């Protein structure tokens, strides 16, 4: 069993008075792709926002490489090596592709070089001078992932990276995420697209009403296909 990179234990969270996470429990082994699956409103995005420190009203434990992250600021968490790529992509649309890449979110040591970024995403080199607003959805998603790679983070939290993208682009993004795992990155992926989650994930946690209600390793998915479809309502 590889070392645990991230461990979430009995995590509760609130938006104002509204209690939305009710004891989330899961762990992400180093070098794996782990998915959080579940219907709209189950609490997946909220979980990512808690990990990165954007949602402050949280209780329980979130350890990253053994260090407690509850109580730490979003800046400290980012500098410790966790990066979040939100569903809305978080790029600066008024800036060019290159300017976005030269403005990493939170600079840490060991960010990926532009050369390596361009190997992984050749389209970003071609589109270097284009403004963010002129990019297709797929190009924006690639730029968003590239930006967090510039930060030097080794744990990547990706919120629905394939949403709204054409199948051929989804395939490309999957290839890139797979290469990142092969390079030793650890990835926590929130997905509604079960086919994509199934392709990418080494293990899966099913979230419902702010709790993990089931879990499957890659080898267990085939035998539990109907059960998982039931959880996701597909
Ligand atoms: P989705 O894919 O729709 O984002 P999700 O599983 O990521 O689904 P969350 O976005 O984490 O779900 O939402 C969990 C619960 O928190 C839902 O009931 C949602 O309505 C509520 N919620 C989300 N964001 C806020 C907010 N900013 N203020 C108040 N409640 C919120």
TrEMBL record:
<keyword id="KW-0067">ATP-binding</keyword>
<dbReference type="GO" id="GO:0005524">
    <property type="term" value="F:ATP binding"/>
</dbReference>
<dbReference type="InterPro" id="IPR003593">
    <property type="entry name" value="AAA+_ATPase"/>
</dbReference>
<dbReference type="InterPro" id="IPR017871">
    <property type="entry name" value="ABC_transporter-like_CS"/>
</dbReference>
<keyword id="KW-0029">Amino-acid transport</keyword>
<comment type="similarity">
    <text>Belongs to the ABC transporter superfamily.</text>
</comment>
<dbReference type="Pfam" id="PF00005">
    <property type="entry name" value="ABC_tran"/>
</dbReference>
<dbReference type="GO" id="GO:0016887">
    <property type="term" value="F:ATP hydrolysis activity"/>
</dbReference>
<feature type="domain" description="ABC transporter">
    <location>
        <begin position="6"/>
        <end position="234"/>
    </location>
</feature>
<dbReference type="InterPro" id="IPR027417">
    <property type="entry name" value="P-loop_NTPase"/>
</dbReference>
<protein>
    <submittedName>
        <fullName>ABC transporter ATP-binding protein</fullName>
    </submittedName>
</protein>
<keyword id="KW-0547">Nucleotide-binding</keyword>
<dbReference type="InterPro" id="IPR003439">
    <property type="entry name" value="ABC_transporter-like_ATP-bd"/>
</dbReference>
<dbReference type="InterPro" id="IPR052156">
    <property type="entry name" value="BCAA_Transport_ATP-bd_LivF"/>
</dbReference>
<keyword id="KW-0813">Transport</keyword>
<dbReference type="GO" id="GO:0015807">
    <property type="term" value="P:L-amino acid transport"/>
</dbReference>
<dbReference type="GO" id="GO:0015658">
    <property type="term" value="F:branched-chain amino acid transmembrane transporter activity"/>
</dbReference>
């Amino acid at each position: 069993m590889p070392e645990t990179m991230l461990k979430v234990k009995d995590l509760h969270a609130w938006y104002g008075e509204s209690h939305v996470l009710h004891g989330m429990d899961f762990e992400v082994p180093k070098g794996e792709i782990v998915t959080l699956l579940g219907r709209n409103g189950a609490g997946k995005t909220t979980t990512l926002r808690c990990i990165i420190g954007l949602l402050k009203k949280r209780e329980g434990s979130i350890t990253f490489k053994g260090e407690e992250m509850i109580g730490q600021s979003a800046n400290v968490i980012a500098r410790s090596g966790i990066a979040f790529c939100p569903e809305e992509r978080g790029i600066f649309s008024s800036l060019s592709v290159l300017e976005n890449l030269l403005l990493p979110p939170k600079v840490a040591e060991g960010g990926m070089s532009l050369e390596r970024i361009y190997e992984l995403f050749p389209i970003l080199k071609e589109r270097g001078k284009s403004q963010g607003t002129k990019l297709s959805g797929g190009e924006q998603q690639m730029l968003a992932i590239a930006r967090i790679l510039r930060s030097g983070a080794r744990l990547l939290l990706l919120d629905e990276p394939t949403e709204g993208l054409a199948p051929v682009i989804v395939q490309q993004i999957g290839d890139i995420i797979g290469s990142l795992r092969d390079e030793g990155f650890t990835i926590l992926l929130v997905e509604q697209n079960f086919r994509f989650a199934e392709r990418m994930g080494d293990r899966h946690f099913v979230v419902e009403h702010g709790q993990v209600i089931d879990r499957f390793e890659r080898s267990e998915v085939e035998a539990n296909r109907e059960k998982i479809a039931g959880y996701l309502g597909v």
